[in-house]
Records
---
Amino acid sequence: MPPDTALFHRDGESFVPSEYTRGPWDPNAQHGGAPSGLFAYVLERYDPGPASFVARLTVELLRPVPMAPLTIAARTIRPGRKVQWLEASAFAGDVEVARATALRVREAEVDVRDSVSPVVDTPMPPAEIEPFSFGPHDVVGMWSTQELRLASGNWMEAGPATIWFRLLNNVVDDEAPSPLQRVATCADFGSGVGSPLRSTKATGINAEVTIHLHRPAVGEWVCLESSGFAGSNGVGLAESRLHDEAGPIGRAAQSLLVESITVRQPPGSRFETS
């Protein structure tokens, strides 16, 4: 894939965003999935050791992330062979615009044959579902980077929904996306997939996303089985069960700022579906 179709192009110490990173709220700001994918790219590589599996990734969006070159400063908070904590900050110039923490855990063969896990129904496989799309088709953004299959629910109505995502673009230049990057770039869509507010007098935007994984995603498809809550106090929560085609892989959650549509124009006003 040519570098100009990736989310970011590396230029020395900077990561230059392409138009594919654009979000729905502001044409000059990135979608949260773009910096989330970039943090995944950096933190799964940083300070390599036996604790290599990213079991938790939290991305905090401190302010709108601009369509401008970003530099990433990473550090190890707590080294360890079994458990390792990392932290990274994204800067646009001298301004910190986003921050992330990652918990990395060592992987080892363990006999868990007598363990008991919740019974989870895997959504209908993406190969059995017709293609689906959302977004302003005349504008390129993060909605352009994913192949979609709507397994349940209705994108145009409020309430739970389940959508399969397949990332079509690399995160950085010509480097194939890792399983973690595939999850990170789509997890931020959860508040839209299972929006409790679509076509109401309020809308919600997430200030962060936290991803928990208990195993790596297998294959190219990641499914978000999402739902959400919106409180009259102006605070909400979106949560997504994460799947690959073999079964559940983890969960994601997002804290939401809920506002009247007279304060913030809903992203759906710019979107079409087909």
---
Amino acid sequence: MRLDALLAVFALLSAPALGQDVVSCRVVSIADGDTLICLTAAKEQIKVRLAEIDAPEKRQAFGERSKQSLAELCHKRQAQVRVVDRDRYGRTVGRVICAGIDANIVQVRRGMAWVYDRYARDPVLPRLQANAKATRTGLWADAEPVAPWEWRKGAATSSKGSDVRTASLTAPAAAQPIARGLTCGSKRTCGQMSTCAEARFHLAQCGVSGLDRNHDGVPCEALCR
């Protein structure tokens, strides 16, 4: 973890001011790859959203891996939350340092989260993302990774349609080239998949998590390795 510690120090020195409030707490649970719950010394429970990054949703490829990565960094550890804001869901938004490690930075460096361009201010994060992408680290190993905010748009659209199981509704626009001609039907096993592209589609867009039994973001290893 030495590299992670150096990155944390560098980020804290180079990043713009991220807010004046600092909350000390112990992380008690991990919701997903960019959200955790911690408990202060006063026994106040706080839900924290990591600032400037956006992790894959649970039903996306690498969603579970991203959650596991954040758990490895922060679960049951003491954290310092440099508060940036509070979002519309009442969550504290901030930079999270767990046992001296900047979790926001490490999630991006490991390819376990995207830089949330809409809110990003730290110039370190895009550089780390570019390196993760170039080395096909984490979620960047996928041929066509879909940004979580685009995936959520697709999910929202599908919930309004009459046929929520069609690819045209469930897949975000960015995923359409690899999803062309595919639909979310009754297929649930790797034996029913004819190609790696079909397996990836059913994992990422249809939520068939059983295709990725070891939670590494790659479905049906016999087809996709």
---
Amino acid sequence: MQARLTNYFKAGYTGLYLLSHEEFRATQEVVRAAQAAGRRCVAWDCVNGLVALDDKPFAKGGEQDVLAPLKLVLSEATVLILRDYQLFLKSPEAPVVRSLLTALDFGAGSKDRPPCTYVLISPYVQLPPELEKRFQCVEFGLPDRARLAEVFHDIAACAKVEIADLEPLLNAASGLTLKETADAAALSFVETKNCLSPQIVAREKAATLRKNGLLEVIDSQVKPEDIGGLDSLKTWVAARQSAFSQEAREWGLPLPRGFLMLGIPGCGKSTIAKATAGILGVPLLKLDAGKLFGSLVGQSEANTRAVIETAEAIAPCVLWIDELDKGFSGTQSSGSTDGGTGSRVYGTFLQWMQDKTKPVFVVATANDVSKLDSALLRKGRFDEQWFVDLPNPIERKDIWKVVTRRAGRPECYAEAELAQLVGATEGFSGAEIEAVFNDALYSAFNQSPRPKHPTVETVIKIITETTPLSTMMAEQIKCLREWCRNRAKPATAITAVAPVADLRRVLSA
């Protein structure tokens, strides 16, 4: 970044807009770049006025008027950092805009006036239309692993301890700013008394990501065996288990992009997303796409950049976008509803999915295919599209075993009893089967004498009183199946549903 900024200064750029939450680190880079370009560096804010950031004397100071830094008469080539100046540009008055335009014109320099580059640092872009073309926006990324390693080594040196294994700490801190990393490391020393704990750093990172509500670190313990059915999809994910390794890169294996799951609610899409991170052995980040959109001008675009930057900093990771159809619905009419913000956010995200070079594996789920744009579905965004249908008899048998095992009652039903339950829950999703068994547990708990587990009769009684989603939304499910027939792969290897009369034969096969 320092070399890039130095080149901008040498090339005579008069306006730079650094996108970063780390004002202090960004300022340090600007100062070093200014020195490398042979310029002095000065900063202005509305509290302290003009302050020199290098070791050269500077006579000015205390000019707190918002126009003061723009009227500064310079005697040598300078880089002027305008701190918090974006706040004055939210609803700018004419003198502020005109003065800044004039300053940018003069900043190019002449034989009577040395050049000056005006630098704004902010986590979001806030420029009126008159100034949009006058500033070059530069994304100032989160610190890399080498910079994070310096923080851990500095803290360990201050505490006079040795770091046994640095890699787990770097994995835990990836995606944090330097200040957040230092704070998490210091807290680790306080809680453990004498060491750096990756678990504490990871916990603090999860809490940090939850602050803005955009990304959440999911501590998922879901394993493939905890999912009934969906064997084709699980096998496909398992084949990419080592896709992020250095060996795969050296062999020339392309980075996997991810997959999109379409299907009926309650059939395991979210569970598969959680299991994918475990199979690949990487962290799981969950994105609520609807929370990308903010009320302030430029906030939505800034949120999108922050999500992409954080995901790439934490990579390799799985980025789970739940209910993609709801989060990005209405983007086609964005121009008449939100001034095009939705279209810009959606376009930025699509472009990133197409061009991303960092190992971020995107797993998206959707229920309503009518809201999905064709640009999202084409090859290149995702490696594959999967259709998750209602479980067939074989899968329902697996689901019943998973549900009873999760409830602490493994193998509580014999094969013949399982066949009865499988037949009675035709058209039920996995979530509905689990809900039925939970209701049966409540019913059994209130019986006297209390059985060890609900009887088959109790469970079937509850099943007959339950109306599954496949009955309530039969027309919508039929349309979804028709749409996915030639557009998505079935997530299960067994697509034919056996008649109820043949269940015993199928289950014993």
